[in-house]
Known about the structure:
Helix content: over 70%
Low-confidence stretches: none
Structural class: mainly alpha
Shape: globular
Amino acid sequence: xxxxxxxxxxxxxxxxxxxxxxxxxxxxxxxxxxxxxxxxxxxxxxxxxxxxxxxxxxxxxxxxxxxxxxxx
Length: 72
């Protein structure tokens, strides 16, 4: 990525995205396992009707990559 500010911004957005998914899953009574979180984010990212900032889309993709690597 390059700059420390950009890296920090991406990291903070990744934390926000994961936190939101985990809390929503908890509210639905689901256990937030890493592969399920990745699936929720993948499905959400595939929905092009939702407008997101570039940093949010980048963060979602980075979280998916990190979570699916962990499961291998």
